[in-house]
Amino acid sequence: MYLDPEADPDQFRAMASRAVDIVERYFAEIADLPAMPLTTAPAVRELLREPLPQEGAALDDVLNVVRDIVYPLSRHNGHPRFFGYVASPGTPVAAIGDLLTAGLNANVTAWRSAPAGAELEHVVIDWFKSIVGFESNATGILVSGGSMANFSALAAARTAAAPEIGRLGGGNQPPLRIYVSSEGHFSIQKAARMLGIGSENVQSIPVDAQMRMDIGQLERRIDQDRQAGFRPMCIVANAGTTATGAFDSLTHLADVAERHRLWLHVDAAYGGFAALAPSTRNLFAGIERADSIALDPHKWLYTSMGCGCILYRDPQAAAAAFSYGAEYTRPIGLSQDEAFAFWDLGPELSRPLRALTVWLQIKLYGARNLADAIERNMECARHFGRLVEAAEDFELLLPVALSIFCFRFQPRGFTGDLDELNERTLVALQRAGRSYLSNARVGGAFALRGCVLNYRTTIHDMETLLEDVREAGRLASAG
Ligand SMILES: Cc1ncc(COP(=O)(O)O)c(C=O)c1O
Q: Model pTM?
């Protein structure tokens, strides 16, 4: 192949047409593939490993590897009965968006690096603000995902609480403290570790029966910490936990944050776009009082991997954490808007034009369509909850929250170890490949856990899932 497309003007179209064939066939067949291929690391490695190729290979030969090995030997997040973790199925529009993004290959460091791209990102950020109801002078940027969004929020919160650390390091000051429910995502602990706050200074607050942070215990812990000489810094509220979909009471947490003058960060990486859906809109009351919000378009907005978002209520607070200048980046002869730099609001300098795919997705499908799909996902999860409750051989471990359900197989008369039986049931289900669940712990019990995050999933798929789990449970019971 020629590096310079002008050397062979037909080359790009030929390659694109073969690539589109592969993706088109994949979309057509996805429901018939096993949700997870049965393979091993050595088997896949054996098919792909080779010494550094010195010469370019033939296009067909290479794309055949993608079609026959890379695509089939992948976990199919877009399979209608893939319910593991929090996995976006992607969309045809997102696939095209990523092609257009790479074609332009903008580097969205600042307005002057990518004028249209920067404005597109501002447009998308404004849409997201309107979805969650954040005030108009709030700001934000797109980042690689929820972990980076949470990291950015905590970096801003740390600077607000202890501005000197960014310049001088921690010194001998008492440790800062972050409060999150025991159900919070581990990216909070990771961020605390990376920011030098220390993962052990993330205080895990117990939850109530619905897995929401216990507000009384939170306040007591903050008071105890202050008395013990720690520096309380931030409360992290969950707007949809990863394991069970629990939604903390944002209004109460905003009250506590206000009373104790703490930063309030809302981790809405999973649940955030449920703000579009009428049946869950009320859960977001109070979110407008947050200092920062993490959202993940690459989860429930169904876009392709690699797109999260962090919103900050106060642009100055974000800039205090991230802004940095050098002679080689000094704006010369630019107005304020044109001197705008994304590196003032997050950790990255070079950044892809993440906004293009998100913009295309919302423009072409429309927010109403996406909201309907999110609502249908939740209805599928609720339907499954009802099926489990009606079944004699299953137990629903928690009420369905957002689009997550947690349950277990409990055949009548079984007197053995239910956790062990359900672990074996999960493995049997995943191996069979017709449906895929992951796991969680609910009140100490091992739970089969599913998250509906796919516009392809139907009520019928939920009925099939129950049958598939029942069959896997039978296999597991038989030993
Ligand atoms: C609630 C929550 N926060 C943060 C994350 C981390 O997001 P990412 O995987 O995009 O880094 C996840 C991932 O599932 C999540 O569910």
A: 0.97
In order along its 479 residues, the chain shows pLDDT tens digits of 889 888 888 999 999 999 999 999 999 999 999 999 999 999 999 999 999 999 999 999 999 999 999 999 999 999 999 999 999 999 999 999 999 999 999 999 999 999 999 999 999 999 999 999 997 799 999 999 999 999 999 999 999 999 999 889 887 899 999 999 999 999 999 999 999 999 999 999 999 999 999 999 999 999 999 999 999 999 999 999 999 999 999 999 999 999 999 999 999 999 999 999 999 999 999 999 999 999 999 999 999 999 999 999 999 999 999 999 888 888 888 888 899 999 999 999 999 999 999 999 999 999 999 999 999 999 999 999 999 999 999 999 999 999 999 999 999 999 999 999 999 999 999 999 999 999 999 999 999 999 999 999 999 999 999 999 999 999 999 87
**Rounded distance from Cα 244 to ligand 1 centre (Å):** 13
Quick one: DSSP state of residue 151? H
For residues 313 and 345, give the distance between their C-alpha atoms in angstroms, rounded to a whole number. Answer: 12
Structure tokens at 206: 């117990």
For tokens 């940095």, name the residue. 324
Cα(47)–Cα(115) distance, integer angstroms: 43
Residue nearest to atom 16 of ligand 1 (CA): 242
**HSE, side-chain direction, 13 A CA sphere, residue 7:** 4
Pocket of ligand 1 (CB under 6 A): 86, 145-147, 150, 185, 187, 242, 267, 269-270, 296, 308
- If you take atom 8 of ligand 1, which residue's CA is the nearest one? 146
How many Å lie between the centroid of ligand 1 and the Cα of residue 143?
12
Distance of CA 284 from the midpoint of ligand 1 (Å): 18
